[in-house]
Every structure is written in structure tokens, then in C-alpha cells.
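Handout, section B. The chain below has 203 residues.
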Amino acid sequence: MKVLKKLVLVSISVALLAGCASPSPSPTPSASVNPTPTVAPMTPAEAKAAYKLIAQASCNAAQSLGVVESSEAYTVVSVNKEEGYKDYSAAYLEKPDKYGVIWELTSITSCADWYSFSMADEAGQEAAIDVTFDASESTYTTFEDFGDSGSAHFKYSIDEGKLATATNLDPKNPSVTEIRYGNLTAEDLAILKTAVDQYLATL
């Protein structure tokens, strides 16, 4: 009888301990993983058509908002005509202290290719710009052959549908230019003023 009581007590103790034990945690559902968005590749013709729209948007923004293009060697400043200084609207600083007036917007990165496209359209011709698109980087690479005047070979990154950086792929003149639209600072505008004043002083 004593043995039976001991067995009963042991069984009750085990049952009580089991009731007090923490429940096993249920498995946590794994978080869903969103696939990395991919950019579809483009044929050269598709890349050229897409890049043409980017070039147009970039130049429109440069002309309406103003633009600053800067690299290690120089800074270009262009404002809209209403905000020009003494009828001049674009200038550059070749660091550290060489200033100059820019006469045509074809000379600034944000407008150069759009002028090539638009002038070709006016002539009823295809713009002589080769364009490729790198889907892995979302960058556009352009090439223009100017004959005896040389060539232009650039890679562009895009932000909000406009040119953001321009990398010169010419091994003799490597550079990276950053392009900023609008919000010109007093320091930016001082480049235009200094360049114009220096130029007018030579007349």
C-alpha cells in the first residue's frame, strides 16, 4: 500500500510540474522577402529614345531653375535669363581662380546633348549620338564623334528623370561632374558675377 501511495504522489507531482512548465514557443513565421526590383534592359534604339527625354528634361530644368555643374577642376554656373547678371547668364570657374563667360548652353553638360538632339530634329536627321543602357547600374553611356574635333564619351547617372552625374570616359581627361538643379547659393552666383565683371573690364 505504501508503494502504491508513493507512485500516486509521484504521478501527481509530475503532472503539477508539467502544468507549471512554460509552453513551447510556436514557430515564428518567416518574414516575406520582397524581391529586388530589376530594371529591364534596353536595345540601343530604346536607350537613345529614353535618353533623349532625359536630356530634354535636364536642359529644361537647367534653363528654368538654374544649374551648377561641379568637378575637381571646375564649376559651371548657369541661371535663367531673368536672373542673369548684366545680360549674362552662364560662367565658369576653372580652379583655383580662372573665370570665364559661357556664351552658349551647348557648352554645359546638362544641355549639350539636348541641343544635339533638337538641332538634328530641326534638320530632319537622326542625332549622331550612340547611346547604350546598363541595366545593372541604371546608367546611360553616350558617344559622339566630332571628326577632327575629337569625340565625347560619357556615362551618366540619372536622378528624378534628369542627369545627375557625368563621368568622362576619355582616359586622357577623366573626370566626374555632379549636376545640381536650382537652389543656387550666393557662392554659386559670385562665380557668374566675378566672371562677367572680369570680362567687361577687358572691353
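Note. Confidence is low (pLDDT under 50) at residues 1-24. Compare this with the example in section A.
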